[in-house]
Design brief:
- Strand 9, helix 6 and strand 10 form a beta-alpha-beta unit.
- The strands form four sheets. Strands 1, 2, 3, 4, 5, 6 and 14 form a seven-stranded mixed beta sheet that branches. Strands 7-8-9-10-13 form a five-stranded mixed beta sheet, covered by helices on one side. Strands 17-16-15-18-19 form a five-stranded parallel beta sheet.
- The protein is globular and about 85 Å long.
- 39% of the residues lie in helices and 16% in strands.
- It has 21 helices and 20 strands.
């Protein structure tokens, strides 16, 4: 029997992870299991920043690996760890490290046949998303160049007494479409009887389906069983936090997968795995969903585990009555006791009776703690102080610091964030939740140190339309409308000026159904769009199809000039000050194909337009 151990891997905690591995081996031995497989980098974790530069940490990982080897009595054990060659250096001058898959049986290490390696080394290093294998690890292809041999010479099965000839793959080795080398084909040609794919892959929208299709295609192409095991838990790259969903399963040679494990949860899956082309009994093709319910799971699992790791027990949410703060509050309401969640209403000069009442209703529905601290008096004091302040020095010998209407909007936001929420969180002993969504973050529609504040932007990778869908799902999850219908119905508005009066239907300057799709084309496409592509699609009459917008763009804008003006307005913000805001914003919980932070690397370059765009623009608008 073979067992896949879908374990929570805690990054940077090799001792904790090793204890989990040893416990699982004890259970497997008691159950008569012969082969036990763990995820990629199961001992150290994968997203560790530059912790890999610490020799003491590497020695700890090595020692943990030796403990696992010693525990392989009566078992074949396969697990991911860092392999260190203390006699060699990486190209950056630091000690040589490999992302490796170790095999042990009866207390002895097993090596891939004829390679001269003591473990399977990852061939296709990952440079996608937050991963940067080449920064730390020496891969098979670089090692082959160093040794003057073909890469295929370093890829071979591992012969075991109990489980036959096993081929080892990791993470990106599963995807070979864009690679000049196929490790799986080499393993099949060298006589592997089963392929093990050990992953350390996070959940993002579309990822479960992609993995399922890749495993199925791999099994069908090599006509061998595929044993896929992935980690659970939460890991982060500093600015981007990822929940790992597991999705482990056995695939027979026809690409059919047995019933899998619950996503985002630790578990063990045991199966008799015949060698070669034999089909599994009762195999059925399944794949976990990546709809709004799974996204909600990812957000709650990720935030909850990160809070426990950082020993965060209390959370403060600024509650406005709008959908973003209501959804944020409802998410945290699933993660903690009501007495540890504090909602803070901060009515200002332009807060409407509608949103004020909705904020109170959300609090009552959640049964959590609440306080109200108005900002009107403090905002007026700031306005008056600056109106009375004078400047000295300079060529004109004077001047004024009086704040205009736009500046006063930011004063209100910063008074809420820097003064009220910061003080409340200190008094309450909790962290501040950031309510910003991806639409706002994309164009900087928020105030630094105001609403762009907090420990984590839980909605920071959700477009506004996703936030509404998540709100409806949370109500279903609670079994009642903890988020009132009014939060869905009220016009989205910052309520910072008379021009943003929700009771007159006035609010944000964004048409979210359209702008979400436009902004997504700038951020999440594998080959990201710019105004050049957007204008080209518009002129060809295919913008809606290209960006996935269900409406008609020509109904939104009376002519090309209006379309271009809107396009450039938001592009200038996206590439301008919004980039600086994103760099200073709280980390986001990643759920999309491309999240801000470590997943989307940015520089403050300012807005630019190609000559081709300028030529198209000149033909349709002039100037």
């Amino acid at each position: 029997m073979t067992r896949l151990v879908q374990m929570e891997v805690v990054p940077g905690a090799p001792r904790d992870n090793t204890r989990r591995i040893l416990d699982a081996l004890g259970r497997a031995r008691a159950d008569g299991v012969g082969l036990v497989v763990f995820p990629e980098l199961a001992v150290p974790g994968c997203l560790l920043g530059d912790l890999w530069d610490q020799p003491a940490f590497l020695r700890e990982c090595e020692a943990c690996g030796e403990e696992v080897r010693a525990a392989s009595r009566d078992l074949v054990v396969v697990f991911g760890n860092v392999a260190i060659d203390w006699t060699r250096r990486n190209e950056d001058g630091r000690v040589r490290k490999y992302n490796a898959l170790f095999f042990a049986e009866d207390g002895r290490w097993l090596a891939p046949e004829g390679t001269g390696l003591r473990a399977v080394v990852k061939t296709l290093s990952s440079s996608k998303r937050a991963f940067d294998d080449a920064r730390h690890f020496f891969g098979t292809r670089r090692l082959a160049v160093e040794r003057g041999v073909p890469a295929a010479a370093l890829i071979a099965p591992v012969a075991t007494r109990r489980a036959g000839r096993l081929g080892g793959l990791m993470g990106e080795d599963l995807w070979v479409d864009d690679s000049a080398i196929s490790p799986s084909s080499i393993l099949e040609a060298k006589g592997a009887e089963r392929l093990i794919v050990a992953g350390a892959l996070p959940f993002t929208r579309g990822a479960p389906q992609m993995r399922f299709r890749a495993c199925r295609a791999l099994a069908q192409s090599v006509r061998l069983p595929v044993l896929y095991v992935n980690a659970t838990g939460v890991q982060e790259s500093g600015k981007t936090v990822y929940a790992f969903d597991g999705g482990s399963g056995f695939y027979d040679a026809q690409g059919r997968v047995t019933e899998g494990l619950e996503v985002f949860a630790e578990g063990e899956l045991t199966q008799a795995v015949p060698a070669g082309c034999a089909a599994f009994a009762q195999a059925e093709a399944i794949v976990s969903s990546d709809g709004i319910a799974t996204i909600a799971q990812a957000l709650m699992q990720g935030a909850g585990k990160l809070m426990r790791r950082l020993k965060i027990r209390r959370v403060v949410v600024g509650i406005s009555g709008g959908i973003d703060s209501a959804v944020t509050a409802a998410l945290y309401g699933r993660l903690m006791a009501p007495e540890d969640l504090l909602l803070v209403s901060m009515p200002g000069p332009f807060t409407s009776p509608t949103t004020h009442a909705l904020a109170l209703q959300v609090t009552q529905n959640l049964g959590c703690r609440f306080t109200e601290i108005p900002i009107g008096e403090a905002v007026e004091l700031t306005r008056r102080q600056f109106a009375e302040a004078t400047l000295s020095g300079g060529p004109d010998g004077g001047g004024s610091l009086a704040l205009d209407a736009a500046a006063m909007e930011n004063v209100q936001a910063r008074d809420r964030g820097c003064r009220v929420l910061s003080a409340v969180s200190a008094a309450f002993g909790g962290v501040i939740a950031c309510n910003a969504n991806k639409s706002e973050i994309t164009v900087g529609y928020g105030t630094l140190y105001g609403d762009i504040i907090g420990w984590l932007a839980l909605l920071g990778d959700l477009w506004k339309s996703d936030v509404y869908a998540l709100g409806h799902h949370l109500n279903r999850l609670y079994g009642r409308d903890v988020i009132p219908q009014g939060c869905f119905d009220v016009v989205p508005s910052a309520e910072l000026s008379a021009a943003q009066a929700v009771e007159r239907g006035q609010g944000d300057p964004l048409n979210y159904p359209y702008h979400d799709c436009l902004f997504r084309s700038w951020v999440e496409r594998s080959e990201r769009a710019t105004p050049e592509e957007n204008l080209e699609w518009y002129l060809a009459g295919e913008l809606e199809r290209q960006i996935g917008y269900d409406g008609s763009v020509r109904e939104l804008f009376p002519d090309a000039a209006a379309f271009v003006a809107d396009l450039e307005r938001w592009w200038n913000l996206h590439q301008g000050l919004a980039a600086a805001k994103r760099m200073q914003a709280p980390p986001v919980m990643a759920v999309s194909r491309r999240a801000y932070g470590g997943d989307l690397r940015e520089a403050q370059l300012g807005p630019r337009y190609t000559e081709r765009y300028r030529a198209m623009r000149g033909r349709v608008v002039g100037g």
